[in-house]
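User: Fold this one for me? It's Glycosyltransferase involved in cell wall bisynthesis.
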Amino acid sequence: MITISLCMIVKNEEAVLGRCLDSVANLVDEIIILDTGSTDSTKSIAAQYTNQIFDFNWIEDFSAARNAAFTKATMDYILWLDADDVLETDDQMKFGTLKEDLDTTVDSVTMKYHLAFDEDGNVSFSTRRNRLVKRANNFQWIGAVHEYLEIWGNIMHSDIAITHKSLHHDSDRNLKIYEKRLEQGEEFSPRDLYYFANELLDHQMYERAATFYEKFLSEGKGWVEDNISSCGKLADCYHALGDYEQELQAVLRSFRYGSARAEFCCRLGYYFIDQGDLTSAIFWYKLATQVGRQENHPGFLNPAFSTWLPHLQLCVCYDRLGMHKLAYLHNEVARQYRPKDCKILQNQKFLEALLQEKNDLVNKN
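Assistant: Here's what I get for Glycosyltransferase involved in cell wall bisynthesis.
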């Protein structure tokens, strides 16, 4: 059985650190905490789980901190988590099995990262991350902000999920780091351009965000998943700015980078509904249901675009065309995914009454 070092960087995480460590302490063989300047009880909480607590002078570089934490590890593999991450009970069991059975020829294990949930507790936004990596490979973190591990070799995709449960977030922190680097004349990498644009979009600075998304895409050096994501985010910018023609062009631009994705099919469906072209809208919403979900997809995933949302929109389209039986059938598919959704339940009630009325008229005649 392999041994595992948990490596974490923390700062002022007293509200969540204990929850995180409770969920994983029994699964790892050592816990390394690198503190970047806490002024609360973070370190005293960490001390309840480990004596390997180190101070690190924060230099506005997340990779530098994570790499420093990794150098303290002594076990076969390194697991990394943020303080507001947890392993739920089922995932703890899966992780234990993985630890017992992992083939030591594996260099990295990816795990799902659940980032958001709907009101029924279903995952509404997720991605994958390289979470468990072989220490001997000396994998390095890259990037001052939105850092990533540069991985190679034999990569295993597991069904284990890490769940993100954030209680607070410094929403300006990353933007300030990027702005400072920009002021210092630093040349941004393609990844920096993409994530800086994301920060600008999150702060509703739509024109500036669009400028940096355009710059990122025009250079043609980005990761394909970031290219596709940029098209969607660029469309969001133009929509917020009221430039609907540029919004459409951004959506269509996504097809340069690969086959149709459900998100962009739904975007086109919405565009054609807005244009009053229901036949074209139906085509794109149907396609969204057909391209489906890709569980090992490396980019961000929102299951809504391939599950309940296109079916709900197909219900709307068919209802407007007077094809109420088809509208009802698609609403029922949507209801399977969201059985408590008020709009879907209202549709069900309305369409059942309408179909019953039609059936009564037929029988009467």
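One thing worth pointing out: The two ends are 75 Å apart (CA to CA).
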